[in-house]
Amino acid sequence: MTVVITPLALFGRWALALLAAIGRIALFAGQTVAHIVKPPFYRREFTSALLHIGYLSLPVVGMTTFFTGGALALQIFAGGARFSAEAVVPQIVAIGMVRELGPVLVGLMIAARVTSSIAAELATMRVTEQIDALVTLSTHPMKYLTVPRVLAATLVMPLLVGVGDVIGIMGGFLVGTERLGFNGATYLQNTVEFLQLNDVVTSLIKGAVFGFIAATMGCYYGLNSGLGAQGVGRATKASVVAASVLILAANFILTGVFFSI
Questions:
Q1: pLDDT-based confidence at 2, cuts 50/70/90?
Q2: Full residue range of the structural domain in which residue 244 is found
Q3: The total number of structural domains that make up the chain
């Protein structure tokens, strides 16, 4: 009997801990949204976050989506050749990049680059008691540290996703025209005619949601980190894992909402 109860007890403790963590994160996200509409607003922190999350992320976003678009074109051409359907490469590359790969890849790159950076920065501030100093100076840590970063990520991520979608399509275009023998004008015409406004809008909405998740996870784990160097390391690792998993889960939910039959 004990052999059966022990695994169930372990699973029960794990499930309760998971639900408690989800509840804490949900409360933190709700408090962040509530503070966005309340003064004061720290414009300097917001501008700095825009630069760090948006502009400085362009190189990694561009390279990731470019090579993904090119590889996608090669894969679709090789697979389509089995059914004499090589001509669908422009359409499938466009819809694959805009609907799924563009937003998800950009979201994961931001989780790797920005979420980890935010978590490490805020965890270090906690360890060195800088956050306690903000409270002493009557400055709300969430208003000063969390709100600018979350708002900046939410606003700039749709732009990054849009840029990533375009670069990914151009990666497929270059591979298609230079290696696979497609006519450039025909390739672009098929791409433009196949994409719909709903595809683009959905991609940008996903970007905003993924940006909110990435920044929120970085701030949550950074502000709630343990003490010492190990605490900073654990907070950084946990923030990236949580952001990546939540981005993939959110992508599944949003895809079901927007493209359910």
A1: low
A2: 42-259
A3: 1
